[in-house]
Amino acid sequence: MSITTGTWNLDPTHTEIGFAVRHIMSKVRGKFETFEGSIVSADPISDSKVSVEVDLSSINTGTADRDNHLRSSDFFDTETHPKMTFTSTGVVQKSDESFVVNGDLTIKGVTKPLQLDVDFLGEGKDPWGGTRVGVEATGEISRKEFGIDFNIPLEGDKVMIGDKITITINAEAVLEA
C-alpha cells in the first residue's frame, strides 16, 4: 500500500457514511447526507490522522417520519447536539491493503472509542487533474453507550430496536494541491 503523503479532503459526492441497526426482524439502513472530513496521510502510516464531522440532522433512512423521529430527543436530539465527530487516535497497518483506524467518536456529548477496519481501494489521478484515494471502513458501536436508548418492548423480552449499530463508510478523498 502506497499513499501519497498530504491532506486529503472527503469528496461528499463520492463518499457515503452509513449505518445499519436491527429493527424487529430485519435491519434498517441509513446514511448522513452532510459531512466534512480529512485524512492526513503520513510516513510512517502510523502518524496519519483522520477527522470527520457529521451533521446529524442530515440523516436519511428513506422515510421522512422515521428521520424526524431520529432527529428528536428520543434519539440524536439534533437541536441540542447537531454534530457527530470522529477524531483518530492511531493508525495500524495490517497488510498492504488494510489497516485499523482507532479513534474517538462523539455523539450527544458522549465520547467513546471506535475501531474502524479499513480497506485501501487505491490511489490515482482523476480526469480533472486531481489525485484521489478510496477506502472502505466498517465498525460497530453500542448506541446505548451514547445515551441513545429509546426503545419499545416487544413480546418475549425482545425490543423493537437493536443496540448494536454497524457503521459503513465508503470514501473517496481528493489530495489538496
From TrEMBL:
Out of the domains of life, which is the source?
Bacteria
Q: Which InterPro entries match?
A: Lipid/polyisoprenoid-bd_YceI (IPR007372), TTHA0802/YceI-like_sf (IPR036761)
Q: What is the lineage of its organism?
A: Bacteria, Bacillati, Actinomycetota, Actinomycetes, Propionibacteriales
Q: Which residues form the Lipid/polyisoprenoid-binding YceI-like domain?
A: 7-174
Q: What is this protein called?
A: Polyisoprenoid-binding protein
Family per record = Belongs to the UPF0312 family.
Q: Name one Pfam family in it.
A: YceI
